[in-house]
Amino acid sequence: MGRYFGTDGFRGKSGSVLTAEHAFKIGRYLGWYYGREHHAKIVIGKDTRRSSYMYENALAAGITASGSDAYLLHVTTTPCVSYITRTDDFDCGIMISASHNPFMDNGIKLMNSEGEKMPDDVQDRIEDYIDGKLAEVPFATGENIGCTVDYYTGRNRYIGYLTSIATKSFENRKVALDCANGSSWMIGRAVFDALGAKTFVMNAEPNGVNVNLNCGSTHMEGLCEYVKANKVDVGFAFDGDADRCLCVDENGNMINGDQIMYICAKYLKKHGLLPSNTVVTTIMSNFGLYKALDRIGIDYEKTKVGDRYVYENMKANDHVLGGESSGHVIFRKYARTGDGILTAIMVMMVMIDTQLPLSVLVSEMEMYPQVLKNIEVDDKEGTMQDPAVTLQIDACTASLGTNGRVLVRPSGTEPVLRVMAEASTKEECEKQVDLIIEATRRSGHLQKIR
Predict the structure, then answer these.
(1) How far apart are CA 439 and CA 432, in angstroms?
(2) Do residues 91 and 34 make contact, with C-beta atoms less than 8 angstroms apart?
(3) Which residues lie closer than 8 Å to 270 by C-beta, 6 or more apart?
């Protein structure tokens, strides 16, 4: 974690934490950095937030002022930027979005030439430049000033790419899409209509301030009600930049990322498309996913929380499927990042190939009840290493055996420990979490329960 860039870009309140000046300086440095030995090309996409237009202009001004060219995809998804960056020979890609956050936040996500998250060393240098720790980069002059290029055709090529992935028509399937008034508001319908689905679209009227507002993957209630009331076969909900997808089955029940990974892993293995026989998860995936994967003979690996870490593990070990329960699901054969629309396509392919409704497909996996409590402590590392606390964690782990687990992890930004338990009943989860919290209290570390 840097001073500005976290695991998913530079994110914060628009106009205060993240300003137009920040965007200009990021553009200035990237334009200079990638343009040192050749005339660089940098592609930019944005979501529907009002502030995204401001940052787009500031980034483009910085890039062109340093002598590189800025190509504008306009409103599009994060995975679209990733795809176009790697396929159209761009030096790097930029996505302006705060993902699932409310409209008053925004973010700048940086990608390398392969459409992967920008390496930390480059982001570290950008932070130093923002803080004035590096020498000022030169301004381009005369004919060396860069150009801003309208590149909406790249967005259309991405739509074509997505439709090419499906091997069967979606004809006669009723599909509801909740586009969160975000990046997928045009692309989602275009893809599903092209594949033959009878498409019903919700929350596709962005006005700059309604992105993720009581809709999308963070507010599933409306989609659940719509699917059930209108007898739709399946519903898909995206977040603001459409790198997440959660589903709703035909009965109006929400299906999370862990369940999506299970049904897709089983399908891929059956068709010989899971060569490493492994799914990459984070430590926060539900215990039920691991039990279900054990039952069908699929291995799994666990990373720190964050799709960045999931992808890094997948790339290093040549795994093809991984993700998070939040709906960041990565199909590495097709994408370098989570792609909500791609995830929806893959779920549709499983449903069509098996001729089974989503409710039946996910019924094989039992989701374990989970309780998570945040506690403020005097010293995160000291608490985690306290013998009395570790002894209680070990005791809880032993008590649950093979029927659950406990997990205690420090927050990356606050003096907080996150205490989580999964077990066969919610009451058992509460009991184990409270035992660990009481151990921190007795040891003198607990400040308050949040």
Answers:
(1) 11
(2) yes
(3) none
d(CA 308, CA 78): 14
Give yes or no: 99 in active site. Answer: yes
Burial class (CB in 10 A: 0-12, 13-18, 19+), 169: exposed
Average of per-residue pLDDT across 357-377: 95
The model's pTM is 0.93
Instruction: Pick 246 or 412 by higher pLDDT.
Output: 246
Q: Which helix (H) or strand (E) element contains residue 22?
A: helix 20-34
Torsion of CA 188, 191, 196, 199, to 10 degrees: 10
- Please name the residues in contact with 434: beta carbons below 8 A apart, sequence gap of 6 or more: none
Q: With contact defined as beta carbons under 8 Å apart, do 171 and 352 qualify? A: no
Say which residue the tokens 């299970």 belong to.
Answer: 262
Tokens of 280: 């990459």
CA atoms within 13 A on the CB side of 432: 31
pLDDT digits (tens, 9 = 90+) for 274-299: 999 999 999 999 999 999 999 999 99
Please calculate the CA angle 50-55-60 and round it to the nearest 5 degrees.
Answer: 135
Distance CA 374, CA 414 (A): 10
CA 330 to chain centroid, in Å, comes to: 9
**Distance in angstroms (rounded) separating the CA atoms of residues 182 and 208:** 9
Residue 260's φ and ψ, nearest 5 degrees, are -60, -45
Q: Which of 99, 183, 217, 285 is catalytic?
A: 99
